[in-house]
């Protein structure tokens, strides 16, 4: 109740969540790791209580030397202006901050908690909150719905989560009655029992305001479809209540039930089940779910509760298109599991500038990043949180999404990667958020005294880093350097000729691979009986005629083959030319069409030759065109680089949004020694995936353990959700997979999922195995 009281005094306090932690070790509950990541807070704070507030919570806990008796002890506590230092809470706060991307007071993040903008808020004597950088909430005008701080019943806790807590209470109100429970489950327009929550003078009206949102002009918005639209959390622990609070803020609707209430069949049947069945009916029409879960109770209790809520002794009807329809049980709509927080999450925002579009001229840098050429004009609310005459710095936050942004979001990338470096004075404090970029509009540059309001607002030049720039920034703050590996350099050179990375992946498909592989160097020269008229081997490098290329593209027709060859020639990945001998050295050489003439120079000895029939060894009456593959593409295929590209294409195939970088080498910044080579780092629908691709499907006993440690270090630095082991073989070594999963399980709540895909390049490769 103390935490919700503090949140009720802060502007936007309806969006707070609470993270439980172990008071002895300071370890936050691992269950909340994914919740915090999805919630994506601007600030992670502790609530510091005055000694008086701590005494109210834990009577007799504070010992004061020199106090003669209990009255003297309490008098000294009341007069002390000291706050209780909770070291365990500080440790938990620091760990939760590592899970997400809080707003920091510096562009170049170093591993220091002191760089965070806000680390604590203080609740003094239970009647006033010191919020630091946060704006105070305006006091409600007129009658609103609010819980009281002194309430302690189950209904009171549910109401506090739903409507907020009144921080001023001139006349103590009685605890809310049990008849309020149906309204707390689902209010609809039935406000008859809501009178028990009334605070202030006047009438509540048909749609009464909540203390949490009254006079704050906040609206609830959702991006995307949320298939889990309602959560019900059961249990008597603080973790259960905090879980319900978090789901309510993230999903838009959630409620908490004590274990006693969940086991009270009579109250469930009379007060809870009818409202839940109404909710199920409405969710069913939108193919959405009500999810039943708990942090402390067993699945058996949850399944029994689900049956109670779905089964009714009475026939329940509802109106649909003017007809009276009997409600049927639907087990698909009510499900016992954890909610899915991947899409459709809720945000509370000011009711201005929502969805506003701004055009920004952008320039492309050498690494593929986009940089705004002008500063973003910061939107300003009509009614400021602080008036311009107050002398206070303006307070509100801005969320900006750059269109077609496919890099990972919400990870703790340094702010320097998100804004154009335009001098020593940063325009604003900003961070990577789940929707793009979030920043405080307060100008961090030079602002003279008595400056006009417009001069106190920053206009940041935003930067959309490329995937490579994002990886470099994330690696840098974790003590790692990044550079293209030899294979990555070759892939980039090929990419630069064909177009984009997407074009390269489109090119390296199973239909084309046999043709590309036919250009790989031969292990030896073919003997007299092994020669193919459509393939000439010079040294160990093969050169193919169009007929030879056509034979390797069995899945394509002649016209499609011609189109592919023309495209490759235009992209300079294939060269058309002749294989000609030399009159002096007698050695054959491939000469591209650009080097041909009536007289040509032998590439090997420099002799001048005439273009006569004896030079093409009388293979035919006229010379036959041969094709040479670009050397970097030839080497890429020869070194199994095609396996890496097929793995990337496999990831891209099922993704709505995809971006990746070629093979990278990670180095230790201090020593400069190589740490690991990573075949692909990809962003797949917002998830970071680290790929290890091999043709054999095994590391071998000597490389297995060090390779798992290296990959896990890089995956942890990039906050990857998954490591994908990909191979063209029929399977990946199960010993490798089990070792990777064992190493991943030891990384804490942010364990990395290990999946496998085998048979790459075959007509039907296996889907990833979790």
General shape? elongated
Summing up helix and strand content along with how strands pair, one would put the structural category as: alpha+beta
Our Rg estimate from Cα atoms comes to 33 Å
Number of helices: 21
- Work out the oligomeric state of the chains in this entry: single chain
As a percent range, the share of strand residues is: 15-25%
| Overall average residue pLDDT | 85
Strand order of the largest sheet: 30-33-34-35-36
Q: Roughly what percent helix?
A: 25-40%
Total strand segments: 36
* Biggest sheet overview: 5 strands, mixed
Tell me the span between the first and last alpha carbons.
41 Å
Give start-end ranges of low-pLDDT stretches: 764-770
Characterization of the model:
There is one protein chain. The strands form 13 sheets. The protein has a five-stranded mixed sheet, with helices on both faces. A hairpin with a 2-residue loop joins strand 33 (680-684) and strand 34. It is of the alpha+beta class and 770 residues long. 37% of the residues are buried. The chain is 28% helix and 19% strand. Helix 13 (486-498) crosses helix 18 and helix 20 crosses helix 21. The longest helix is centred in the middle third of the chain and has 21 residues, at 265-285.
């Amino acid at each position: 109740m103390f935490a919700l009281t503090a949140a009720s005094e802060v502007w936007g306090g309806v969006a707070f969540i609470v993270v439980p932690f172990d008071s002895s070790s300071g370890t936050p509950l691992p269950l909340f790791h994914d919740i915090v990541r999805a919630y994506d807070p601007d600030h992670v704070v502790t609530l510091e209580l005055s000694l008086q507030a701590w005494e109210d919570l834990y009577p007799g806990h504070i010992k004061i030397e020199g106090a003669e008796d209990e009255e003297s002890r309490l008098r000294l506590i009341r007069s002390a202006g000291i706050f209780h230092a909770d070291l365990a809470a500080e440790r938990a706060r620091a760990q939760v901050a590592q899970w997400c991307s809080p707003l920091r007071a510096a562009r170049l993040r170093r591993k220091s908690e002191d760089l965070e903008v806000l680390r604590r808020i203080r609740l003094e004597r239970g009647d006033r909150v010191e919020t630091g950088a946060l704006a105070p909430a305006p006091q409600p005008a007129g009658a609103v719905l609010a819980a009281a701080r002194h309430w302690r019943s189950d209904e009171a806790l549910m109401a506090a989560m739903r409507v907020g807590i009144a921080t001023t209470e001139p006349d103590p109100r009685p605890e809310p009655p049990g008849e309020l429970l149906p309204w707390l489950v689902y209010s609809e327009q039935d406000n008859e029992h809501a009178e028990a929550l009334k605070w202030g003078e006047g009438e509540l009206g048909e749609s009464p305001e909540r203390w949490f949102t009254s006079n704050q002009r906040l609206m609830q918005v959702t991006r995307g479809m949320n298939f889990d639209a309602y959560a019900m959390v059961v249990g008597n622990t603080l973790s259960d209540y905090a879980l319900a609070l978090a789901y309510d803020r993230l999903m838009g609707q959630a409620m908490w039930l004590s274990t006693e209430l969940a086991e009270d069949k009579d109250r469930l049947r009379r007060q809870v089940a009818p409202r839940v069945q109404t909710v199920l009916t409405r969710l069913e029409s939108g193919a959405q779910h009500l999810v039943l879960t708990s942090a402390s109770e067993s699945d058996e209790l949850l399944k029994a509760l689900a049956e109670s809520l779905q089964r009714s002794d009475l026939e329940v009807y509802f109106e649909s298109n003017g007809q009276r329809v009997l409600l049927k049980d639907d087990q698909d709509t009510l499900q016992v599991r954890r909610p899915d927080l991947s899409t459709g999450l809720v945000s509370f925002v000011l009711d201005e500038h929502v969805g506003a579009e701004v055009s920004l001229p952008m320039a492309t840098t050498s690494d593929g990043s986009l940089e705004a050429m002008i500063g973003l004009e910061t939107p300003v609310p009509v009614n400021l949180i602080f008036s311009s005459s107050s002398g206070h710095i303006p307070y509100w936050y801005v969320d900006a999404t750059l269109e077609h942004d496919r890099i990972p979001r919400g990870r703790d990338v340094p702010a320097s990667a998100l804004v154009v470096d335009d001098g020593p004075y940063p325009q604003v404090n900003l961070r990577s958020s789940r929707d793009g970029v979030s920043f405080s509009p307060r100008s961090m540059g030079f602002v003279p005294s008595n400056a006009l309001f417009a001069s106190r607002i920053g206009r940041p030049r935003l930067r959309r880093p490329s995937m490579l720039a994002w990886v470099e920034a994330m690696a840098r703050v974790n003590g790692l350097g990044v550079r293209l590996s030899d294979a990555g350099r070759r892939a980039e050179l090929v990419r630069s000729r064909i177009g984009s990375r997407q074009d390269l992946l489109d090119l390296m498909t199973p239909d084309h691979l046999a043709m590309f592989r036919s250009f790989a160097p031969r292990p030896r020269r073919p003997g007299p009986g092994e020669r193919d008229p459509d393939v000439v081997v010079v040294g160990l490098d093969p050169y193919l005629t169009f007929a030879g290329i056509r034979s390797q593209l069995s899945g394509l027709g002649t016209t499609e083959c011609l189109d592919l060859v023309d495209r490759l020639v235009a992209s300079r990945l294939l060269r058309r030319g002749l294989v000609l001998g030399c009159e002096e050295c007698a050695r054959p050489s491939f000469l591209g069409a650009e080097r041909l003439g009536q007289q040509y120079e032998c590439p090997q000895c420099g002799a001048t030759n005439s273009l006569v029939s004896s030079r093409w060894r009388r293979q035919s009456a006229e010379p036959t065109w041969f094709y040479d593959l670009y050397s970097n593409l030839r080497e890429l295929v020869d070194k199994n680089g095609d396996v890496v590209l097929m793995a990337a294409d496999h990831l891209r195939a099922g993704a709505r949004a995809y971006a990746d970088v070629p093979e990278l080498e990670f180095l230790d910044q201090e020593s400069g020694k190589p740490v690991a080579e990573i075949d692909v780092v990809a962003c797949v629908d917002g998830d970071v995936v680290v790929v290890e691709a091999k043709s054999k499907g095994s590391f071998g006993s000597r490389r297995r353990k060090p390779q798992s440690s290296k990959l896990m270090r890089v995956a942890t630095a990039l906050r990857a959700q998954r490591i994908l082991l990909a191979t063209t073989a029929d399977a990946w070594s199960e010993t490798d997979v089990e070792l990777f999963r064992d190493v991943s399980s030891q990384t804490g709540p942010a364990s990395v999922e290990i999946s496998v895909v085998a048979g790459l390049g075959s007509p039907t490769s296996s889907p990833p195995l979790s």
